[in-house]
Amino acid sequence: MATAIVTWWGALLGLALAIILILKKLNPVYALFIGAVVGALIGGANFVQTTSLVITGTQSVMGTVVRVIAAGLLAGVMMESGAAETLARTVVNKLGEHLAIFAITLAVMIITAVGVFIPVAILIVAPIALEIGHRMGISKLALLVALSGGGKAGNLISPNPNTIAAAKGFGLDMSHLMIADFIPALFGLFAATLIAMMLKNKGDKVLDADIIDDSETDTSHLPSLKSSLVTPILAVVLLLINPIGQILHIKLLANIQLDAMFVLPIAAAVGATAMGKGKELKHFAQAGMSRMTDVVLILIGAGFISGLITASNFPAVMVDLIKTSGVSGTFLAPIAGIAMGAASASTSTGVILATGSFSKAILSMGVNPLTAAVLVHIGAMLIDHLPHGNYFHVTANAMHMTIGQRMKSVGYETLVVTVMMVVAYVMYVVF
User: Fold this and answer.
1) Are 34 and 18 in contact (CB under 8 A)?
2) What is the pTM (predicted TM-score) of this model?
3) CA dihedral over 33, 290, 262, 161, signed as positive or negative
4) Which residues contact 273 (CB under 8 A, 6 or more apart)?
5) End-to-end Cα spacing for the chain
6) Degrees (nearest 5) of the Cα angle 245, 250, 254?
7) CA-CA distance, 377 to 381, in Å (whole number)?
8) What crossing angle do the helices spanning 410-425 and 369-382 adopt, rounded to 10°?
9) Half-sphere exposure of 322 (CA within 13 A, CB side)
10) Which residues pair with 6 in a beta bridge?
């Protein structure tokens, strides 16, 4: 059976319906499924063709699904073993109170960069940040900007589902994208620190009730710093073997191609053993898998929409529209990321939807795959912290903020990511 050709407006209506249903709090997977089916049927496909394009779309995301599942073990080890908390406390303690805001921002960046989900990273560091903020009179607003900005910078270079999806959506190796995102992430780190320092006397102060008594904080169960570093260092080293070999023209290293599917579980298992927690690997795996379940389901849902868009002439229409308007095709990449990230209020979901729906259109305009992946990736973070997403509420609860107090941070978080976007655009488009 030939692939169904769906009209562009059918695909657009299906995508719009999915987004509306997500905003209405329908389970995102069902929202994406309904959008794909309705869009295909009203766009001219029959029932058999609709079934075929939905299944084909699902098959297209299976490679990413496998790698996300593999990443679950690393995330489980870092979160459940206490390694992430050890890293956070070490960074804050070493830098001291005179660099408190930078220490908080860097701590979240590091533990997000090593594979911990950004909401979890903030939950880990928030009590430490509140403790310092109470002692030094730093406002909750400044602390949250530091936490969220650092988390977004770390998320840009982490082996998390969003990075995996951005890389695979444009046919790249994840390590190449992580390297490309590194400098924009550093600018994000410094932007978040600077903005937070400017806000330290603005907004509500940390109250006695917001902090945990030191006597109630038991850190005896935490692994040592050296053992906590084994997992992230091993993962980074293995992921960078091939890129370093290519950059330095070392044939032996360049021929070693270790996919994240192998690297992340191996690093997690070795790291757990180094921490003396090898017997708990089963628990870590279960915890990691539970964290990845929603992401995997979203990926499958995105596959539905991807099948719809691929079977339509929507990408071709988008390309013609941009060419006619005279706007550079490089703008489609960040716009797609921003739109999908804002609609879903999730970096991972935004990247998945943007790559699944617009990757072919972006590449057809002559945009370099690496440039496209970087811009989509950062774009999805720009306004993914809106109130209809979990991130907004998780971070508000972590900082003991009301909805109104949490809303005051949204613009500043957007500004941090805007800095990363401008840096990336200058690096990969202007030059």
Assistant:
1) yes
2) 0.86
3) positive
4) none
5) 46
6) 45
7) 7
8) 170
9) 21
10) 312
- φ, ψ of residue 205 in degrees (nearest 5): -85, 160
Q: Give Cβ neighbours of residue 423 (< 8 Å, ≥ 6 apart).
A: 183, 184, 187
Burial class (CB in 10 A: 0-12, 13-18, 19+), 375: buried
pLDDT given at position 40: 94
**Distance between CA atoms of 302 and 283, rounded to whole angstroms?**
29
Cα–chain center distance at 258? 22
Evaluate the CA torsion angle 122, 412, 393, 101 in order and state its sign. positive
Block means of pLDDT (10 residues each) for the chain, length 431 residues? Answer: 73 89 87 94 93 90 88 91 91 87 95 90 91 92 97 94 93 93 98 97 89 62 92 92 88 87 93 94 92 85 85 81 81 91 86 87 91 97 89 91 94 98 96 82
Q: How far apart are CA 266 and CA 230, in angstroms?
A: 11
Closest CA to 239 of 155, 181, 175: 175
Other C-beta atoms lying within 10 Å of the C-beta of residue 379: 29
Longest dimension (CA), the chain: 69
> At residue 14, what is the residue type?
G
Contact 115, 159 (CB under 8 A): yes
The candidate with the shortest Cα–Cα distance to 232, out of 130, 128, 115, 154, is 115
Residues ≥6 apart with Cβ < 8 Å to 228: 81, 82, 83, 84, 86, 87, 222, 271, 275
Query: Which string of DSSP letters, residue by residue, matches 123-146?
Result: HHHHHHHHHHHHHHT-BHHHHHHH
Which pLDDT score is estimated for 1? 41
Phi-psi region of 377 (alpha: psi -120 to 50; beta: other; left: phi over 0): alpha
Query: 339: part of which helix (H) or strand (E)?
Result: helix 332-344
Helices (H) and strands (E) in the chain, counts: 22, 0
Token pair, residue 146, equals 């530091």
- What tokens were used for 272? 């757990």
Q: Tokens representing 4?
A: 């169904």
- DSSP reduced 3-state for 312: strand
The answer to whether 375 and 347 have CB atoms below 8 angstroms apart is: no
